């Protein structure tokens, strides 16, 4: 089976802006691949190149074994795409848009369409202009997930969905994976990526800075600890995996790798913990910590 | 008055946002009656000539239906009658201004942003109404001053200005009420325009019937019935004032009772599944364009009926004016003048049809900017197919609109000269002869869209230049090469005996070449270009 997405050295510039700067991305067949990065890092640009909407300036791009620019139409019949901001025609109902997009791709599964509508609690009779942001997103998701395609390309598909619907979305992505579909899931929500993805590519400033399985990327995780201890601190600094240790009397603050968390906490309890706050890293913090090229004031 | 808190600030915001649009329509609408008066003074200097014109106009039902009744033979009375259609434009401008600053704001969510601040419950509606009322009153004053400056009696001038202003006030208030009823600005505009259309129809019926009571029921019928310059009836303005008060008395309680963003009428639901027709890109394009093409056809059909009906009288309008009669005899007498009038009318329809073509082509730009093109192009739809699905409407649309105009014109003109079999095909041909020139502009819009999408609206500017060249070229005595820049200059006058079809083929070829180049460019460029 061919590799659904293979990108190497992709460059795309808009005027003077270099949106993609030698990006590499490989998505294997049957996997859910997380495509992570902050806003403006080039995720949507990459996806638009993959869809043949934007023309690459340099680099090699293969999509489902074809050239996304030249073979756009044939390839598009085999994939479904949900943009990050689904906009609907104001005078078409949600149901009409779902069917239209399905037919333009070559048909959708009516049974799954009905199931999807029910689980997303979407009223298909409303006109496009009457839907909220989250409901517009659902229209795009139902149209894509009801299609019989090999590849799903989802660009921040859950923006505007509430946590309950986020659950429903995850359920359907897992089902798509079970059915043997490949999924490229662009996101900046770390929890969503953690819950769904087999492998992850992290992009920053138009380059892939990290790519691998989640376990491989675990080392990126650091938990921030802010604790007050009974006895003066001792022996924490030499523990492997402890970073940025700051001691202020009995108060101690540090960041710790997930692997070293247990050892660090053991040391703290030996000293007698009076209070403890632990904060998991946000994606942005992860970036800031892992890639040192950060202005001074942001790290404080 | 805490319910009005912030009204002043909102009014200033409206004035700031409309600082170009508002003065523009006020000024244009105020100047037009003045120019009518000036031309009546020049064209019909004697009472006898004016009497002949007044009688001719009063006898012609399609002119009376379009512009309103003739109440006298003075220059003032003729000016007031000639300006009858301006009332519709004033009404429309006032209506749309109020909706633009109430429901449009609410639908876009900007009203919510302001509602979080110190803003009274009534401030939004009040500010929009006050600004529009002020614009209407200013328009009335300027109109009156302008008319008086041409030498018309002051009392009549002010009566006419007052009628204009109060017509605007009624429809502004109607806009305020419509904005409360529906969730969408489109729905509110629909209600407002439907009422405006019904008022116009009532006035048409009343003014052409033997008894004019339907006109008394129409807000558009009140202003003429003040009878400016012909024994002003100063009690008539009470009618629009009472009507406005009643409309406001309904609008305000409704606005208080409903939630922000909600309407009174429930939003209409659509089908849960797509019909058979909504399948390919052409099915989608049909859904997106069909409303426009329908309304343009209806509008142009009505216009054609009215103008065709007026042509015969226009041909005879010079009777009793020996100088003009002499000039007209040279171009073929009354029928020659009617043909000249019809030719000019249909060439205006050609310019408007080009506007339709540009509008339909630029729909692609709107689809791209709104993010609608991207998901469609990410399916099995070829770029060329998508583009063609819209270009078809940019090309077929002008044909439909001009054919309808030609047929409608031919029908009523044919009836008035009792020769429908001859005039119907002649006018259809004269309408269709405008198509190639309209295509050139539509083709230009496609080219711009494919090549330089950000500059696509420049096509409108090109149309504006064509309009100016066509309308003012002869007056300003511009050089022929300048006039030749407009494709409409090359459209042959097919109502004359001899004409050549070659320019039509050339124009059509140019239009297709422009569109084809646009298509090629579009296939190569990035989508979306923001």
Automatic annotation (TrEMBL), chain A:
Pfam families to which the protein is assigned, alphabetical: ABC_tran (PF00005), DrrA1-3_C (PF13732)
GO molecular function: ATP binding
Keywords: Antibiotic resistance, ATP-binding, Nucleotide-binding, Transport
Broad class of the protein's primary localization: membrane
InterPro entries noted in UniProt: AAA+_ATPase, ABC_transporter-like_ATP-bd, ABC_transporter-like_CS, ABC_transporter_ATP-binding, DrrA1/2-like_C, P-loop_NTPase
UniProt cross-references to PANTHER family, sorted A to Z: ABC TRANSPORTER ATP-BINDING PROTEIN, ABC TRANSPORTER ATP-BINDING PROTEIN NATA
Family: Belongs to the ABC transporter superfamily.
Protein name (Swiss-Prot/TrEMBL): ABC transporter ATP-binding protein
Organism: Micromonospora fulviviridis
